[in-house]
Amino acid sequence: METYKANENRYSNMAYKRCGRSGLLLPPISLGLWHNFGSVDVFSQFIQIAYTAFDNGITHFDLANNYGPVYGSAEENFGRILKKGLGVYRDELVISTKAGYDMWPGPYGNWGSRKYLMASLEQSLKRMGLDYVDIFYSHRPDPETPVEETMGALADIVRQGKALYVGISNYNAEQTKEALAILKEYRVPCLIHQARYSMLDRWTEPDLLPLLKEEGVGMIAFSPLAQGLLTDKYLDGIPENSRAAKSTGHLQREQVTERVVNKIRRLNEIAVSRGQTLAEMAIAWLLKDERVTSVLVGASSVGQLMDNLKALQNVEFTSEELQRIEIVLSE
Ligand SMILES: NC(=O)c1ccc[n+]([C@@H]2O[C@H](COP(=O)([O-])OP(=O)(O)OC[C@H]3O[C@@H](n4cnc5c(N)ncnc54)[C@H](OP(=O)(O)O)[C@@H]3O)[C@@H](O)[C@H]2O)c1
Question: Could you tell me if the CB of 162 is within 6 A of ligand 1?
Fold first, then answer.
């Protein structure tokens, strides 16, 4: 493979968004490596997805310690991609990783202790061949560990220079409020909250999004396509090689119900009337909300990523379109 040279026009078509009240700008679409970059996937394919992302202005790549499968392999593979050429652009990249879910056996490889977070980040840096990550997250709240300990570990990680910013993920509004207050006391503000948000899952709307806006914290929406459901992929059954068909995928066959498929069909009609694919419309629908800093997509091919990027060409909705969508979603 030739040495990678990034597209010189990579910044021409991307309007970056400020992450909360911070100095950091993020692309409205970021790339997540939860699936498709593990040891079960094909290197020559996913390196092209990463290059295509960066060539099109996607500067933010999101990982976690246990992304793969196998655990750790997405970080290892991303390290290889950096080594192959992307790493030349390290100062143009925002790389995030997380700890909070099951990673290694025994009492120190899960949840939110200082012991786990510190050790896990050390391992993540080694796997990726990095001195620091841009954002380090507590991946989920831990009901058994004092939140002061988890947030204290995040603050110290920033002070040690191992992460430039910190974030939290999967914390509900109440837990978020508490975490933000503690981080403020440590004078390490929370940069960003990473939460599941899509047309099919709107739990963030009543309390979390207003809180983040008030507190000046950015929001990055994960699984914006509901793992592929909000695309035209499942309109006529479950295709081979799709996430729902794969044994390593987190989308289960049982989630592709007749009721969901009916909804998707009707959403697809609205998308077509807007001149978009359903994937494009689902991403645009999230980005119409100025509180959403970035939409964190996954992609199993370069074609999917390019389709998702097209969402940026039209993120405006008429009130009639929004109403039509609302009717489908509320049924
Ligand atoms: N913080 C957390 O707890 C958490 C949890 C989950 C995810 N995340 C983050 O969010 C990222 C994205 O999550 P996700 O992968 O679930 O996001 P997603 O964008 O909702 O789903 C991605 C999947 O949808 C399908 N797809 C994507 N674009 C498509 C297109 N244009 N047309 C048809 N199908 C398309 C592909 O599935 P096929 O493989 O079937 O082709 C792809 O793998 C993750 O990588 C991770 O960084 C974070």
Answer: no
